[in-house]
């Protein structure tokens, strides 16, 4: 979700044309790529998913892109790039309406540290260590859910805030 806001916000903030913008992060299918393209990114980059699923993913993504274009009568990606820019929202509005928060089930945690590494390296160090277990700083958390995706045991999961 944050990536979609960035695609809409960055060009106007820095004053450059969308033709110079490449989207990345969270793209695991051709349909994910289409969402970024609809918001104006003419290029998308896929990294982690290819590492996890192999290069065959690229063929599947191309097929999904062709399917999307066929369903909507588009002949080239240029026909739909940027068509939904007016539907995007700001970071502030997105964060203020996102009430899903990461939670920890300590009994499932193996202290592997993957959540901490993902959070730290993702740029939002909201997970620290306390007694061998991750501790989530909800004030620093952007609720991107990366910690829950990398947790191999399901010890960290996203749930609606009750605070």
From TrEMBL:
MF (Gene Ontology): dihydropyrimidine dehydrogenase (NAD+) activity; iron-sulfur cluster binding; metal ion binding; NADP binding; uracil binding
4Fe-4S ferredoxin-type domain boundaries: 100-130, 132-161
Record EC number: 1.3.1.1
GO CC list: cytoplasm
One Pfam assignment: DHO_dh
GO annotation terms (biological process): thymine catabolic process; uracil catabolic process
Catalysed reaction equations from the record: 5,6-dihydrothymine + NAD(+) = thymine + NADH + H(+); 5,6-dihydrouracil + NAD(+) = uracil + NADH + H(+)
Superkingdom of source: Bacteria
Keywords: Iron, Iron-sulfur, Metal-binding, Oxidoreductase
Keyword Amino-acid biosynthesis attributed: no
Physiological role: Involved in pyrimidine base degradation. Catalyzes physiologically the reduction of uracil to 5,6-dihydrouracil (DHU) by using NADH as a specific cosubstrate. It also catalyzes the reverse reaction and the reduction of thymine to 5,6-dihydrothymine (DHT).
Assembly with partners or alone: Heterotetramer of 2 PreA and 2 PreT subunits.
Family: Belongs to the dihydropyrimidine dehydrogenase family.
Protein name: dihydrouracil dehydrogenase (NAD(+))
Species of provenance: Geoalkalibacter ferrihydriticus
């Amino acid at each position: 979700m944050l990536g979609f806001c960035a695609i809409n916000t960055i060009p106007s903030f820095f004053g450059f044309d969308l033709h110079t913008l490449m989207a990345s992060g969270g793209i695991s299918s051709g349909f994910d790529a289409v969402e970024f393209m609809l918001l104006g990114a003419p290029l998308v980059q896929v990294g982690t998913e290819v590492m996890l699923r192999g290069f065959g993913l690229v063929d599947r993504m191309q097929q999904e892109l062709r399917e999307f274009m066929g369903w909507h009568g588009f002949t080239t990606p240029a026909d739909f790039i940027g068509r939904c820019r007016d539907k995007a929202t700001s970071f502030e509005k997105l964060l203020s309406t996102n009430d899903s928060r990461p939670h920890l089930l300590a009994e499932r945690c193996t202290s592997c540290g993957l959540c901490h590494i993902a959070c730290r390296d993702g740029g939002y160090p909201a997970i620290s260590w306390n007694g061998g277990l991750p501790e989530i700083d909800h004030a620093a958390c952007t609720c991107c859910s990366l910690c829950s995706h990398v947790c191999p045991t399901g010890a960290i999961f996203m749930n609606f805030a009750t605070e």
